[in-house]
């Protein structure tokens, strides 16, 4: 017995040791992340740092003057109000529309591929071009007024984009912005729906769940990661709404991004423009934190 134990011990000592994990294997994830981190550092972190420094400088010296001038601007609160209202209307509308479109596409609807291409058209149109398209619809001699006149509902037309009708002006911008970016949300949600196993919905159907119950208790909880990403991206872009607003109503509807452009281009004050950019960044970060906490995804939900 002792001889057998000694033999086994000698065999274990003579056996080659397993190869140690190389340093390259350990660093491989960092090599893969390096291009993304470099891109973020050059095009996001560094410009944000420069904007922060510029927002607290006046004639090359540290000063809170730019922030004070921004807050004292007569359009300061109006621009914030319009931007927040636009975000509160556009983002939920886009999420609801994108969810309906995505559910139709994964439901096996005949001709779903054609609908996908048609709904994705706005992705290939720039913000300014989208604004010009909707300008041709809503202006005094646009397609909408021509259609109303043809139906006998008005001969002189309605000034949808006039400052005398602020509600219609705001709704026109909201409609144009909703149309322009709903496709982006749809693509994100569609990708999320395609990775949800069909077994869950089929099991719920077997137990008598209605379509709405399956969407509410099965689809939406499992779609939470995609909803989180879509809401964060779309809200950040909504705070940066600019070209569509300028193309449709010009200066009649002040928004934060437009005020940053006005201070930089028209008033030649980069410091106050950087202060506006810093304010937009703060709003975006606050909303991102809210979405991350409200739509927190646990590890077991991802498994």
Write the layout of secondary structure elements.
Elements lengths: L1 H13 L8 H33 L1 E2 L2 E2 L2 H8 L3 H31 L5 H8 L7 H12 L4 H8 L15 H29 L3 H9 L4 H12 L1 H16 L3 H7 L6 H11 L3 H25 L4 H4 L1
Antiparallel strand pairs: 1-2
Please name the defining characteristics of this protein:
303 residues; 15 helices; mainly alpha; two-stranded antiparallel sheet; 75% helix; single chain; flat; MetI-like fold
Description:
The structure is a single chain. The protein has 303 residues and is mainly alpha-helical. It has a single domain, classed as MetI-like fold (Orthogonal Bundle), CATH 1.10.3720.10. It has 15 helices and two strands. It has helices spanning 2-14, 23-55, 65-72, 76-106, 112-119, 127-138, 143-150, 166-194, 198-206, 211-222, 224-239, 243-249, 256-266, 270-294, 299-302; strands at residues 57-58, 61-62. Strands 1-2 form a two-stranded antiparallel sheet. Helix 6 runs parallel beside helix 12 (243-249). The radius of gyration is 28 Å and the shape is flat.
């Amino acid at each position: 017995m002792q001889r057998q134990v000694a033999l086994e011990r000698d065999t274990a000592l003579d056996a080659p040791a397993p190869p140690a994990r190389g340093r390259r294997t350990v660093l491989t994830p960092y090599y893969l992340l390096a291009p993304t981190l470099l891109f973020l550092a050059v095009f996001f972190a560094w410009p944000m740092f420069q904007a922060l420094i510029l927002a607290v400088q006046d004639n090359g010296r540290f000063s809170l003057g730019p922030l004070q001038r921004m807050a004292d601007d007569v359009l300061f609160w109006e621009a914030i109000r319009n931007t927040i209202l636009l975000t509160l209307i556009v983002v939920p509308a886009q999420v609801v529309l994108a969810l309906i479109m995505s559910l139709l596409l994964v439901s096996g609807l005949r001709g779903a591929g054609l609908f996908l291409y048609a709904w994705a058209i706005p992705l290939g149109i720039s913000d300014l071009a989208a604004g010009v398209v909707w300008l041709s619809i809503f202006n005094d001699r646009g397609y909408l007024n021509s259609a109303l006149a043809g139906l006998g509902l008005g001969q002189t037309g309605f000034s949808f984009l006039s400052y005398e009708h602020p509600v219609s002006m705001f709704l026109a911008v909201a409609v144009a912005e909703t149309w322009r970016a709903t496709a982006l949300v749809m693509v994100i949600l569609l990708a999320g729906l395609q990775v949800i196993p069909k077994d869950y919905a089929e099991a719920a159907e077997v137990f008598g769940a209605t379509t709405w119950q399956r969407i509410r208790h099965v689809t939406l909880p499992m779609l939470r990661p995609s909803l989180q990403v879509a809401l964060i991206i779309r809200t950040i872009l909504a705070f940066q709404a600019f070209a569509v607003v300028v193309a449709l109503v010009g200066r009649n509807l002040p928004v934060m991004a437009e005020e940053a452009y006005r201070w930089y281009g028209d008033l030649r004050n980069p410091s106050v423009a950087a202060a506006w950019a810093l304010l937009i960044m703060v709003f975006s970060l606050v909303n991102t934190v809210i979405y991350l906490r409200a739509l927190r995804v646990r590890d077991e939900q991802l498994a």
